[in-house]
Amino acid sequence: MKKIAVQGIVGSFHEDAALKYFDEEIEVIECKTFTKVCQLVDTDEVDYAVMAIENSIAGSLLKNYQLIRDYHLRIIGEVFLHIQM
User: Fold this and answer.
1) CATH, residue 59
2) What is the pTM of this model?
3) What are the helix (H) ranges across 22-71?
4) Which of 2, 29, 35, 61 could cross-link 47 (Cys pair, CB 3.0–4.6 Å)?
């Protein structure tokens, strides 16, 4: 089973995105910050991470782009979620 790091808790939009992207059973690893998400990938404690890099309200999440660069991560896919609040 793949371990997937997400910022937030089970039930968050990041978990929704992970479940939508990975077409198999996964273990979601909850992280308090996007930095922690990247650290877990960097130390091979998880297989993948799901991170928002844009949203329709805030636009581009520039800090997350910087984390991707700082940790030498690669974007391998994208998920579009329709969020209703």
Assistant:
1) 3.40.190.10
2) 0.88
3) 34-42, 62-70
4) 2
